[in-house]
Amino acid sequence: TDFAVLLTSYIIGLIIEKFFKNGSEWLNNIVIKGCKVPPLAFVDDINMMTDNYENLKTIGDKLTEALNHISLRANGQKTKIIVTGNNKQSKELRENLINNPITIQENNIEVTESDLYLGFRINKNGVRASIQQTADERFKKAAGKLFTIKTVVNHPAMQANGFIRSSAALFRAMIVPTVMYSSECWFGMSKGMIKNMEIKYHKMMCKLIDIPITTSYSAVLAEMGLNRLETLIDIQKLCFINSIVRQNKSTDITKELLEADHKAVREFNEKIKKSKAKKKPKEKESIYRSEEHT
Q1: Mean pLDDT, residues 203-231 taken together
Q2: 187, 127 in Cβ contact below 8 A?
Q3: Which of 156, 189, 195, 203 is the most exposed place for a label (fewest CB within 10 A)?
Q4: Cβ neighbours around 149 below 10 Å, total
Q5: CA-to-CA distance for 19 and 61, rounded, in angstroms?
Q6: How confident is the model over 218-224, as a mean pLDDT?
Q7: In 3D, which of 213, 225, 217 has the Cα closest to residue 167?
Q8: Rg of the Cα trace of the chain?
């Protein structure tokens, strides 16, 4: 069954890709900050991006043509348009889409402030607002699992493993994946956002093992054998970037990542060389001067 689903989604992707390739160049490669980004598709979800009304109308027509060709129907209630940004251009585009809606298979597509795509909440106010809304929803979902964990931990059969050990194991297995879902794309977070997430993470651990929330965060982490949330998010990002680089080394996004990585390494090495060059001559100078003086 899983193989059939994968094969079907792959065939659908190829057919839709064919229809878009027969259109304008921008349909196949949308440019964002100098990077060409192709249409994003995953199983039965398709994410298309553009920056003006005319192109968006063309996307609607092309999708309609492709879906009709393979006898599929788009879900009109689940298909949404999100115009990100609050500048003049974004507001005008948003207003135009409300007054003159885009259609896909005779469905008028709603313009919304936010919507969920593969576990990530895309918000019209931009990246940070999207991350914040996504994180808030993930924490709410994780908080609902605390009662289940406490019930299991307090069961007599779990006493042999120890309360803290059992709590930490279930927290790591149930809470961490729930909170961390989609965190590999949480780029551009402010220090305040990270701090608020760490506070929520700390409170959840304290609530689970029934200790005051004033208990040192570092002490709670050490006792439960867990890492800070920021560390876990960084690991997720590194794994994600590594998978992109390994997957396809010819894409513009991969080239940007590799160039940024090489630049960072070069800058770091230059700083090390400069710091070494500054320290050594001064030490030798002071020795020579002291010998001459004697």
Answers
A1: 93
A2: yes
A3: 156
A4: 19
A5: 10
A6: 92
A7: 225
A8: 26
Backbone angles phi, psi at 115, to 5 degrees: -160, 155
Which CA distances in Å does 34 have to 30, 85, 142, 246, 256?
9, 18, 38, 21, 9
Distance CA 229, CA 194 (A): 8
| Exposed / middle / buried, residue 20 (Cβ in 10 Å: 0-12, 13-18, 19+) | buried
Higher pLDDT, 136 or 86: 136
Average pLDDT, the chain: 79
What number of CA atoms fall less than 13 Å from residue 279's CA on the CB side? 6
Please tell me the number of Cα atoms within 13 Å of 11 on its side-chain side: 10
C-alpha distances in Å from residue 17, one per residue of 21, 55, 202, 252: 6, 16, 46, 19
Residue reference for tokens 């800070």:
228
Q: Which two tokens stand for residue 275?
A: 């710091």
Q: Report, as an integer, the average pLDDT of 12-33.
A: 56
| CA atoms within 13 A of residue 96's CA, in its CB half-sphere | 13
Paired tokens of 189: 């977070």
pLDDT value for 217 = 94
Quick one: DSSP state of residue 39?
Answer: P
Q: What average pLDDT score do residues 212-237 get? A: 92
Q: Quick one: pLDDT band at residue 286, thresholds 50, 70, 90? A: very low
Phi, psi of 103 (to 5 degrees): -115, 140
Of 50, 45, 41, the closest CA to residue 14 belongs to 41
Kindly state the tokens that stand for 1: 């069954």
Tokens of 201: 């993470």
Helix axis angle for 191-208 and 127-143, nearest 10°, is: 0
Average pLDDT over residues 58-86: 83
Q: What percent of the chain has pLDDT over 70?
A: 74
